[in-house]
Amino acid sequence: MKFYIKNMACESCKIVVKEALEELKIPAIKVELGEIETGKDLTPEEKKEFNYKIKKAGLELLDKKQGAIIEKIRKVIIDYVYKTDEKPNIKFSVLLSNKLNLNYTYLANLFSEIESTTIEQYIIALKIERIKELIIFGEDTFSEIAYKLHYSSVAHLSTQFKKITGLTPSHFKALKEKRRITIQNI
Questions:
Q1: Which fold has domain 2-62?
Q2: I need a surface site. Which of 20, 33, 35, 129 has the fewest CB within 10 A?
């Protein structure tokens, strides 16, 4: 069962959560920033006790509604980055608001609180990973990649890529090709 935890922003938070789960003998499958996955559904009493233990560290178990909203936000973002080649005629904030029928400020604040990153930073991180993937596949030009990922220009894509990775897309592509030659020569 997946649960979301508010204010979980660092490795020590993960330790607090793991310790609370162990004390309550709740099997943990995954403990990530902002979310946990347990091997079973928690009883109301277990939820109450778990929440009591993590509140000492400033953390709080979210209700299912808020967790479901976070999942919906992620899905819209992933669809936006991976599945829409054509640039929408509206801003992403309006798109998200319309799809979830909720105020964008509320969604952005909830997402930031739980994920410890903004929606914008999350989109950028996903886009950078998608750019790497498309460069490695080698089927698209930088112009096509910029268009697919809703960048205004190749220069904008390159600037953002370099800011995040420390490499230009061309340099990243050259490294990939060098590695490829090395592997073929083995």
A1: Alpha-Beta Plaits (3.30.70)
A2: 129
CATH architecture of 122-184: Orthogonal Bundle (1.10)
Rounded Cα–Cα distance for residues 163 and 185 (Å): 33
Distance from C-alpha of 130 to C-alpha of 7, rounded to nearest angstrom: 28
Q: How far apart are CA 20 and CA 55, in angstroms?
A: 11
DSSP letter at 33?
Answer: T
Q: Give the containing element (helix H, strand E) for 150.
A: none
* pLDDT tens, residue by residue, 42-55: 888 999 999 999 99
CA-CA distance, 23 to 91, in Å (whole number)?
46
Q: Output the CA–CA distances (angstroms, integers) from residue 24 to 34, 49, 59, 95, 104, in the order listed.
A: 19, 8, 17, 42, 37
Closest C-alpha among 128, 40, 38, 117 to residue 74: 117
Q: How far is CA 76 from CA 30, 52, 68, 105, in A?
A: 23, 33, 12, 16
pLDDT of residue 86: 67
